[in-house]
Each structure stands twice: as structure tokens, then as C-alpha cells.
Specification:
Number of strands: 21
CATH class of the domain at 187-438: Alpha Beta
Structural class: alpha+beta
Shape: globular
CATH topology of the domain at 187-438: Vanillyl-alcohol Oxidase, Chain A, domain 3
CATH superfamily of the domain at 187-438: FAD-linked oxidases, C-terminal domain
Length: 469
């Protein structure tokens, strides 16, 4: 077991840094228990690959990196396939292991760099399905036995405790393994189409239930990234399509944004780029069939950025998107797109203080069977879909004042106006009071947490503030 002290750690976005008293890399579950035993009375936090923009990753005292807990065990039960996965296993490694047996995960997000525990503990999701947390069958957690004070392993596999453990922010204890129900590998057929209105792109959802779509800044057009499961054979042009997507979107778009935002900072050029240049690079109606993993995963980790993602229900999405557009417009020194004079006056104090420079991605997430994931139901019988609105900045970490001003305002206003929840693993400025209103099951979650961790040994300062009413 490797152990260090006094090491400063940074997250992917370089907006969070922390210096734990000690940092450990256990190589087994037994060593995890040994660490808990040796550090009784200390606060213990686990980080995955630090691909998070919130303070959920911060460890002030004892930090655990579980990168050596990467086992993957696949078994058949009653005709179904299940994978029990070490918490430090990266999603890309798990997908590779599953693929070798003709299997895959029931839900895959935009990137596959995160660890399984980090992704599920914060509600990572894709588009058109539930979050990955929703599909967890069982969780193995290391924590202190409330009766004896000794470290133990508890397996949670049913009831409200499982709903809490599926997306727990690491507050029940140290997750050491997770069990998923797997599905057979499948293919997806996708293409891109342009739309002038939100209604039209949402209407396309009936035909393309796995779609995500992009709102282009300054042109305010929509591009539907249409996706649907397909039994058709893999397209002959699949390799060319992936090469195009990698060169034009994963790399090319980001290089342009990098130059325009970080070096030139010409707002007029950026507006021209989104209105005239980028549309010419979009390969519309190029319909391609390929393996689901190839289609669903992008390469957003190639360029450092910061991100806030806000979740609203389907019924509130149109008004929420209009508010996002108006807010971006005024922050960018332009009139509101809706022509709402009152809103323009409300936002006047922010006029010209932040210029947005990246497509806004919107993804549909089905209601989760969890207590506090961002797409957990508002009501116990709630089934309304959620939509995640993602806003990203690629500016230098030292020049993010405008983004933070924008994100702080937008998160607070969206929470009040539309009941918007901020992603736990991305920039999240919401308060405990706001979270208590947004998550009706938060009190229930905290009650379950108190059973596993009555002394708050698995929280940090930020979680203490935002999770307790």
C-alpha cells in the first residue's frame, strides 16, 4: 500500500485543489479496512480520476485513491448477466471487459475516463436512458460499525438503503465494489440534423429516443444528434464517420475555441464562427450504424475546461432554455432573444460580463430509482423525464471570473424559477437550503446516511454545508 503525506492534488478542471494530511492507495479491500482502522476519528474521502468540478472530491484529512481496485467479475444469474466491479475500475476498462463477453452497460455517458464509483456516486448519465446509478444492483461499502466502532464491509442490495447507495456522494462510506446488471452489446444508428426551434428537435425524440442536441451560441439554432438502437449491420463508413467526428468535433472545434477564446478573444469573430463557419462543417444526414460505445462516447477530456450542468423536468424545459438564451445574450452584451424587457432590466447589472463560446449540450435523462441523483423523482411516483443543460467554458483557469459570475447567477435563478438541480460532480454553487427544496428525499437520504456514518467521517466541509438543512 502506497501512502504519502502533504501532497497537493488538483482536479481535472484546475478549479479545485486540496492538500490532505495523508493520501493512500490501497491495493485490496483488506487494506481499505486497515486504513479505516488506522485513521479512526479522521475524516476520509475517496476520489476517482478527479474528473469533477465540484468540491465533492476534496479530502481535508485522509484521501483514498482506489485505482488498484479494478477487478471485474461477470456471472450469470437466472439467465441474466451481472458484473461485480472494483470501485476504482475506469469505465473504459469495464466496457472493454464486458465487450469481450458480448456485453455492455445499460447506460453510457459522454466520457469513459471516470471510475465506476466516482461516476455512479455523482449521477453520471448519457442521453435517453436513466443515469448509470439507476442500474446498480448492489454496493459493497467499507464503513465503521456504529455498535463497535470497528471498520466493516456492508453489502447493500435492496430497499431505501440501495436507493441511497446508488448515488451517495461517498457519504455512506468507502465504496469498494458495485454490481450492475449488464445487457447484450448493441448498435446505434445516428445522424445530425439542423432545427430552428426547440419544439422541432424535441418532436424528433419519438423517432430517436437516444438523441442529444446542441444549442449553438449566437446563432441560437439547434442540431439534433439523433440516435436510435438498430439491428442493421455496422456501416462501411463507420470508420470514416468516427475519423470525421474526432477531427472536426473532438479536436477541430476545440482548437478553434482555444485560439479564439484563449488567445484572440475576439467576440465578433466567435459570433461569426458559430453563425457561418461551424454549420458548414456539420455533416448533416450522414446516417451511420456502429457499436454503441463508439457512438456514445466522446473525447471531452482532451481539453481542460470547466462545466456547470443544470437539470430541469420536461414540462419546464422550454421556459428554462429561453431563460438560458436570454441570460447568455445579456451576459454577452446583446439584447435578450425573447424581447423580454423586464428580464433585460433584471440582467442589466451583468451586461457584458461573460461571453459564452461553446455549444450548449442538452441530454434527456429518465427518472432514476434513487434518492438524490439529479434525475431522482420529485414525487414518489414521479416519472417525468429530466433534461440536463450543460454549459462549458474553455477559458484559462485564471480568467474564469466571468464564468463563475454567470454560473452562480444562472444556478440560483434556475433553481428558483424552474426547480433546476445542479450536477453534483460539476460546478455546483447551490446551498443546503436550495438543495432541501429541490430534493424531496434529501431528509430520508440523510437519515440513512446517519445509520452508516453517524459521526460524519466520510464527508468534507463542502458536503457538510450543502447536504444538511
Amino acid at each position: 500500500m502506497q501512502q504519502k503525506s502533504g501532497e497537493t492534488l488538483f482536479n481535472f478542471g484546475r478549479n479545485v485543489e486540496f492538500k490532505p494530511q495523508v493520501s493512500c492507495q490501497p491495493t485490496s479491500v483488506e487494506e481499505v479496512l486497515e486504513i479505516l482502522r488506522n485513521h479512526k476519528g479522521k475524516r476520509i474521502r475517496v476520489s476517482g480520476r478527479l474528473h469533477s468540478w465540484s468540491d465533492v472530491v476534496v479530502a481535508e484529512e485522509v484521501h483514498l485513491d482506489l485505482k488498484h481496485l479494478t477487478s471485474v467479475e461477470i456471472k450469470k444469474q437466472n439467465g441474466a448477466s451481472f458484473a461485480t466491479v472494483g470501485s476504482g475500475c475506469q469505465i473504459k476498462k469495464l466496457l472493454k471487459e464486458l465487450k469481450s463477453q458480448g456485453l455492455t452497460l445499460p447506460s453510457v455517458g459522454l466520457i469513459d475516463e471516470q471510475t465506476v464509483a466516482g461516476a455512479t456516486a455523482t449521477g453520471t448519465h448519457g442521453s435517453g436512458k436513466n443515469s448509470l446509478s439507476h442500474y446498480i444492483e448492489a454496493v459493497e461499502i467499507a464503513h465503521y460499525d456504529p455498535a463497535t466502532g470497528e471498520p466493516v464491509i456492508t453489502t447493500i442490495s435492496s430497499g431505501l438503503e440501495l436507493k441511497a447507495a446508488r448515488c451517495s456522494l461517498g457519504l455512506l462510506g468507502v465504496i469498494v465494489a458495485i454490481k450492475f446488471k449488464c445487457r447484450r452489446t448493441y448498435r446505434i444508428k445516428e445522424h445530425i440534423e439542423k432545427y430552428a426551434s426547440l419544439k422541432k428537435v424535441l418532436d424528433a425524440e419519438k423517432r430517436y429516443p437516444l438523441q442529444q442536441f446542441y444549442l449553438m451560441p449566437w446563432s441560437w439554432n439547434y442540431y439534433g444528434h439523433h440516435r436510435v438502437e438498430s439491428n442493421e449491420p455496422k456501416s462501411k463508413s463507420a470508420f470514416s464517420y468516427r475519423a470525421y467526428w474526432s477531427a472536426i468535433i473532438d479536436v477541430g472545434l476545440h482548437v478553434v475555441v482555444y485560439v479564439l477564446v484563449k488567445l484572440l478573444r475576439f467576440k465578433s469573430v466567435m459570433r461569426f464562427f458559430y453563425k457561418r463557419i461551424l454549420p458548414m462543417t456539420m455533416a448533416r444526414n450522414w446516417k451511420v450504424v456502429d457499436d454503441s460505445h463508439n457512438m456514445l462516447v466522446m473525447e471531452h477530456e482532451l481539453f481542460r475546461h470547466i462545466e456547470i450542468e443544470l437539470f430541469v423536468t420536461r414540462s419546464k424545459l422550454p421556459d428554462a432554455v429561453e431563460y438560458v438564451i436570454d441570460t447568455l445574450s445579456v451576459f454577452g452584451g446583446q439584447p435578450t432573444q425573447s424581447g423580454n424587457t423586464q428580464r433585460r432590466n433584471e440582467l442589466a447589472q451583468f451586461d457584458g460580463s461573460y461571453f459564452h463560446h461553446y455549444p450548449i449540450c442538452v441530454r434527456r435523462v429518465l427518472a432514476d430509482d434513487t434518492l438524490i441523483s439529479m434525475s431522482s423523482p420529485i414525487k414518489s411516483d414521479g416519472k417525468e423525464d429530466w433534461y440536463a443543460i450543460s454549459l462549458i467554458s474553455y477559458d484559462w483557469p485564471s480568467r474564469r471570473e466571468g464564468f463563475f459570475k454567470f454560473a452562480n447567477h444562472l444556478a440560483a435563478e434556475m433553481a428558483t424559477r424552474f426547480g433546476a438541480r445542479a450536477h453534483w460532480g460539476k460546478y455546483n454553487p447551490l446551498t443546503a437550503e436550495q438543495n432541501a427544496r429541490l430534493y424531496p428525499n434529501l431528509q430520508e437520504f440523510n437519515s440513512i446516511r446517519a445509520k452508516f456514518d453517524p459521526d460524519g467521517r466520510f464527508e468534507n466541509d463542502w458536503l457538510s454545508k450543502v447536504m444538511r438543512e
